[in-house]
Every structure is written in C-alpha cells, then in structure tokens.
Amino acid sequence: MAEVLKYVGLDVGGTTMKAAVVDDTGTAAESVMLPTEPQFGQEHGLATMAEAIRQAVKAAKLKMGDIAAIGVATPGMMDIKLGLILDPPNLKPWRNVPVRDYIHKTFGKPTAFQNDANAAAFGEYWIGAGRDFHSLVLFTLGTGVGGGVIINDRVMEGAHSHGGELGHMRIALPDTGRLCGCGRQGCLEAYASATGVVGRTREAMAAYRGPTRLRELLRDDDGSAMTAEEVFDVAAAGDPLAMQIVDDTAYYLALGASAIISVVDPELIAYGGGMIAAGEPFLAKIKEYISRFALSYPAKQVQVRYAQLGSDAGFIGAAACARQLVASSGSGN
Amino acid sequence: MAEVLKYVGLDVGGTTMKAAVVDDTGTAAESVMLPTEPQFGQEHGLATMAEAIRQAVKAAKLKMGDIAAIGVATPGMMDIKLGLILDPPNLKPWRNVPVRDYIHKTFGKPTAFQNDANAAAFGEYWIGAGRDFHSLVLFTLGTGVGGGVIINDRVMEGAHSHGGELGHMRIALPDTGRLCGCGRQGCLEAYASATGVVGRTREAMAAYRGPTRLRELLRDDDGSAMTAEEVFDVAAAGDPLAMQIVDDTAYYLALGASAIISVVDPELIAYGGGMIAAGEPFLAKIKEYISRFALSYPAKQVQVRYAQLGSDAGFIGAAACARQLVASSGSGN
To answer: What is the CATH number of domain B6-123+312-330?
Structure first.
C-alpha cells in the first residue's frame, strides 16, 4: 500500500495564524494557532509562520521528514506567482515579504503560496461543499466580502493576483451606490458584508418610526457596537424591520451571484463566514432571488450551498495547494 | 520540415455563415460565405454547414484529406460539451441540433464545437489582440453585447455553457436599471449595445431642448431607424449631446470592465464589433473610466485594446478550437 502523503497548511490572518497537517485524503490533524502580531514587523511574522508549521507537525505527532510539501495562504495584496506579500491593509507595516522563498528555504520543502480567500475556495472544492464539482465560486461573508473562484479544478488567481475579488464587484451604479471600505461606491461588500449589514440597519432604523427590537442593540450613540449577528438574531425572532434587512442582504448577495453566473457559470456557488449561522431560511431567500435575477438557464442548474469547512477552510485549502504542487510537478517526472 | 497542419473554421450566424481553412500559423485562406436560412429548418442548416466546409477547402485549393480537424462556432443557447445547439433566439425554429456529431460523421475528422463569442475571443487570443497573453476578456459590441473569457490559454465555457455571457452582467440595480432584451433590468447590454446606444439617444433627445444634429437622424416617428454608428459619427463631428452619449457608452463599458477585473483579473480586455470604428479617442475614454472605477492595482496593469480580427474572429477562433483539440488529443498518444 502506498504511503499517504502529508502536507502542512498554514492560513495567515491579520490577528492569528492557523496551521495543521492535512493528509492526502483531506483528513486534518490537530490544528495550532499563533498570534500574527504584524506590528512587530515582518521578520517576526516570518519566524512565527515557521514556528506555526513546526508546531503543527508536532501536534500531528510527526517529524518534518514526514511532510511532502507546505502551503501558505495570506491576505492580499500579494503577488501569487512571485510568492510575495505586498502591502495588505491588515498586515501593516509588512511590505514585500518573500513568504514562499522564506518557508521553502527554512524547511527545504516544495512550498505553495495562495491568497487566503482563494485557498478557502480550494479547500471547499477539495473536501467541502464543492467536493463533487470541478468549478465553484465561494463568497466569504465577514467584515468584508471575500471570494475565490475555482475553474477546471484550479484556482483562478488572476493575471495580477486579483482574481476572485468578489467583494468589489459593483452591484449598483457608482454615483448612487453605497460607499465601500475600498473608497469606491456600489461594491457588493458595501451592502452584504457584516459592516454593510450594520450600516444599512442604522440607516433603516433612523428612517423607521415604528417599534423595532433593533433599538435594543443600540449601546452607543451611533450604533457602531451593533453586530450583523445580532441583527440576524432579531430577524429570526420575528422583528419586521430586521427581517427586511436580512431579506435585502439575500437580495444583494443574489445580485453578486447573478454576475458570477453571467461571467463564470460555475457548478456551485457557496457562502461561508459568520452569516451562514442564519441557516436554511436565509439560503432559501438567496436562491429565490437568484432564480429571479440571474440568467434563467444556468440559474436553474447552479447549486447554491453553504460552505462546510468553517475557519479551517484556509489551512485545508493551503494544504490542497501544496498537494496540487506536488501532483503537478510529479506528473512531469 | 514538419507539415503545417490545416483546419477548417466555420462561424455560423443567424443570417450568414462564414468558413475558411486556417493553418497552424493562423494564416487563413480565402473565406466563403453562405446564407444560414434557419427558417428552412435544421436539416437544411446542417447541410449548409457541410457545404460551407467543402467550399472553404476548395477555396483554399486543398482536398478534404489535407484537413486535420474542423471547428464550428454557433450562437447560444447550446450545450458545448454535448456539441448541441439548443434553441437560440436567432436560429428559430432550430432545436437540439447535433452539430458536432453531424460534422464529425460527415467528414470523419476531429470536430470542435464552441460558442461563437467564445470562439471570437479564442481567435483574438491566438493571433489577434491577445496573441501575447494567456488570459483575455473580449467584449463584442453589436446589436447585443457578447463576450468571451480566456483563462490559462483555454476558453472558459462555464459549467452550463454560459461562461462569458458578459452582456448580461448587471451594472445597475434591477429596480432602476434599463430594460434589456433578455427581459431583465440593468444588464450591460441594455446600455452599451448598439440598441442601447440608440435607445439612450432617443431618450436624451426627448429630454434635450437645445439644438443637436442628432435630430437629422430621425427618419421615422420613434427614431428606431437611427443607428449607433450614426450617433458616433455625429459625436465625432463635435455635437455636444452626441458626445455625451458616446462618453456615457465608454462609462458603461468601463463598469463592465471593472466587474471583469474584480472577478477574472485578465491580462487584456479587448473590444470588438461595430463601435470600434470610433477609434482611439473612444478607447482612451474607456481606459480613463476604468482607471477611475476599477480596483486600482489590477486596473493599472490590465491592457485595454481593440480586437484585431474583425468578422473573421469567429472562424479563426473555431479553427483555433480545432487546433487545440488535435494538440490535446495528440499529447496523450
């Protein structure tokens, strides 16, 4: 019986990084988490990445010699082909960090490098919601809206490492669209991120004269302490205004999905992140709006599901990238 | 010296079909054109396709034995994988036409089948505006807005043969967007197709009290005889209202390009079709709006050009698909 190859997947975020050994069947060993502490500089960050990889191998009760390859996922901006982090807003003051070369030199293993949202999509493709498909698009709903596109079993990285920046698809004309964190107007993220949900809720409350339990969420002057999860909870309890906001969120997400159906026409559209706690009724609303607003022929056939790997998607996807690297280099020998 | 392989490319449209022999270097022999005459039924249509292929081989002073493979491009709706035309609106009353099998059986040659807009994009990728690139997105501006996406040297067909339906990306919210021919609101095509340009011109004239040479184009009650080319000509002559309409067209096209940059992030965005007669000033406007409205990092790097193959792009791209078919099956032997 052939040995089952093992990989380390590492997912670097602005606050923490998470790593685990994942084997060829997609089974993950115990994961480890370390603080990223970008404020201590990029040398410290690279050393922490190496330490997370070592700890993950140890947590799996393995030795580094047991590892076939390593995959690292980080937030953009980045140059995927060169293996560089450029200057991501949530990893300040890092700049031009040679992640792939550093990890490769430190461990002497084939090392894959990928955008974190792309890696999450690739993880879902490998062993999650998309394991039966060759193409999928993942929307990750959090503070922002992230995304990853898998086509023909490969990550669509983009020519300039910006493939699948789905939060910045525009769903409304720039002159009337909501202001996005990126400084542009009308981006999907401005409507459907947790931040967008809270912003729309504050505006709706200001314009609404009737009673709503949403007012109980106002713990500060401008309502900025309110969370999207709370708005969804109040909606689930039957509050009409909150229900309208959740319904609108499904509508905006469906407009993003409609654009994806027109451009990419994938087998599966998946949603991950905090909002999926809203469960099947929310997913059903998204599907209903997709059937109304997308091109009907592909819309009838596309699958729409929740992601399945939660916050493990990033390191599992990073490991999947390592696995693909070994498989593709192996086929040439 | 190895023999230069030769292919027949056939591009089937609603009114005419065009075919030519194209060799491995992309050099096309004299092309032939036959009427499609969909009203005479699909048997007649298939026979005409076969006749066009025969005439193309004859026009190239070759025999069928000299041909390595055949490529056929047709309008959607279609099932690319099964090689079927389903029920395209401009090929009525055709329905479930087994194009690929028919051509394959008739000539006994490897036969590729592709969407016409995808084929045009693949032709531009092969020997046109995109010949130096591995990824490009082509917008074809005509009665509608067609599109094709090439990623990693391959056509993005979509899981349900709807990849690259770029005219039906929505650039405005459905409730306020212009009505599209597809019955939905806010599609790029509703704004930036020739039909959309004429529609916007009629509305602008109705709302405009000043003098404009556009009124000379009104030869019938509702202005429907006016063409987009005429509007562009009047703009080129300096008419302020027409110039505004052309400028708005560039703006809408740039919004479509911005969405493509966020999702696909290609090396090249190319524009083909009648409107490119407007020349460099129009392209410069599109570029300016892209720099204002797209994600800045990829927008700075993406190339924006006119297509180069004109109405030959379809049959050249169909031949390129035939060539890819032979190359990929050959590599397995």
So the answer is: 3.30.420.40
Spatial CA neighbour of A102 closest among A43, A185, A24: A43
Tell me whether residues A263 and B169 touch, CB distance under 8 A. yes
A154 interfacial to chain B (CB closer than 8 Å): yes
Would the CB atoms of B267 and A170 count as touching at under 8 Å? Answer: no
ipTM tops the 0.90 cut: yes
Distance from CA of A262 to the nearest CA of B (A): 5
Give B161's contacts in chain A (Cβ within 8 Å). Answer: 265
Cα B319 to Cα B23: distance, rounded to the nearest angstrom? 8
- CB-based contact, B302 to chain A, within 8 Å: yes
Digit-by-digit pLDDT tens for chain A (333 residues) are 567 999 999 999 999 999 999 999 999 999 999 999 999 999 999 999 999 999 999 999 999 999 999 999 999 899 999 999 999 988 999 999 999 999 999 999 999 999 999 999 999 999 999 999 999 999 999 999 999 999 999 999 999 999 999 999 999 999 999 999 999 999 999 999 999 999 999 999 999 999 999 998 877 766 668 999 999 999 999 999 999 999 999 999 999 999 999 999 999 999 999 999 999 999 999 999 999 999 999 999 999 999 999 999 999 999 999 999 999 876 443
| CB < 8 Å to B301, chain A | 159-160
Q: Residue B309: CB partners within 8 Å, gap ≥ 6?
A: B120, B123, B124, B127, B128, B129, B272, B316
The reply to whether residue B259 touches residue A170, judged by beta carbons under 8 angstroms, is yes
Q: Does B82 touch chain A (CB under 8 A)?
A: no
A288 touches chain B (CB under 8 A): no
Asked whether this chain's domains B6-123+312-330 and B133-307 adopt the same fold, the reply is: yes
A173 in contact with B at a CB cutoff of 8 Å? yes
Whether B96 and chain A come into contact, CB under 8 Å, resolves to: no
Cα separation, B19 vs A260, whole angstroms: 33
Cα A148 to Cα B64: distance, rounded to the nearest angstrom: 46
In chain B, where are the structural domains located? 6-123+312-330, 133-307
- Could you give phi then psi for residue A132, rounded to 5 degrees? -95, 10
Distance CA B122, CA B131 (A): 10
A154-155 and A145-151 beta bridge pairing: antiparallel
Longest dimension (CA), chain B: 71
Q: Looking at the domain covering B133-307, what would its CATH class be?
A: alpha beta
Chain A residues lying within 8 Å of B157, measured CB to CB: 265
| pTM for the whole structure | 0.95
Polymer length of chain A: 333
In this complex, do A298 and B152 lie within 8 Å of one another by their Cβ atoms?
Answer: no
Q: Which residue has the tokens 């092969």?
A: B126
Query: Distance, in angstroms, between A151 CA and closest chain B CA?
Result: 8
At the topology level of CATH, where does A6-124+312-330 sit? Nucleotidyltransferase; domain 5 (3.30.420)
